[in-house]
Amino acid sequence: MVLKPAKAQYQGYVYGEVVLKNKQTYTGPIKWSGGQRLWSDVLSVAKSTNKNVFKYLDGSQIKRLSNEEGGREIDWKFMSLWEDRYPRRKKEILCRFGDIDFIHVTGSDKAQIYFKNGSKVRAVPYKDEAAELGKSIVVYVGGDSKTIKWDEISRVNFRNTPKNSRLGRWAPLYGTVHTSNGPITGFIQWNRYKYLNAHKLSGKTPDNAPVSYAFAHIARIERQGDQSLVQLRSGESMLLGASDDVSSANKGIIVMHPLYGRVLVEWKAFRSLTLQAQPSTGLDYDSYPEPSRLYATVHTTDSRTYKGTCMFDLDEEWNVEMLDGNKDGLFYQIPFYYISSIAPYRQRYSKVRLRNNSTLLLGWANDVSDKNWGVIIWLPNKKYQYIPWNQVKEISFR
Fold first, then answer.
1. 59: closest CA among 82, 77, 76?
2. Tens digit of pLDDT for each residue in 172-188?
């Protein structure tokens, strides 16, 4: 039986116009250099260094942060002030393509990213995601693909995907991943890099026969030790192994959704995947709200309370930026606008309450551990208060 691709007029694909330096323009669906095709896909880059934030800290506070990051001991004598002794930690910006208005190319691997509200950040490649800036992108125009080199691009303007786009052959994987911490539903990237119905799952049967099946034919995948039980839509089932698609060599299953961001599920936390049809509404470009500044109420360990716009971890300012945290083989990246509160828990963790009243205990990442650089709250009359992380009892977001 041959399954035909769905012909749904799906609007979740990244779409826009690529304006070249010679003023030529290509308009159509876009595949970014890191393989991103959907508005829910994440662009992972690093913010250019912003030392202005340290003007809100005194010398002893800067020194403490520098020493915690393994920097050189700071000598605050007069001549040493000429040296660059600020704490050094490459700051990562994580946002979805649906949050971006346009990207302006400013160098061989640099860009300015403009959010939908007109705010911008200067971006350079992030150390673990070097392919996401400075590389060629692909635009699909009139049924053909056009590869455009980075140094040819002036800017990329993102637009709502037309309802009549012929994108059925690129149907994305969507389903529910059952994990050791419960079910998660969204768009799927299997083994990190397989995300379309046309992509194939490979493995070997118990008698060592190699087989592969397009995900369009697969209904369910269940982990069984270092192998997987694969159930086809035809009703046939088989046990497969000896491949990184279906064993502990799997690089992880990514689940993405506009509400909770992105979750990377390691093999040890994976239980099963049930594939299903993607929603027909609510996932288009206009479904992503304009960013607003983070506004927080901070309760401190000495019973003080501060309210105002804030900068979290001396870096995140907008509610479309994402919180990092890990939980037993699940690596979460959650937009701040979906977070209700964060409360440090012991040294390496935080209790993160979401707006649907569910709570996650996340740890180890800078955002949710004692590696957090603290919070700045802007108070009335242009005053401000810097609160180190070890003095935070709870942060509630409006």
1. 76
2. 999 999 999 999 999 99
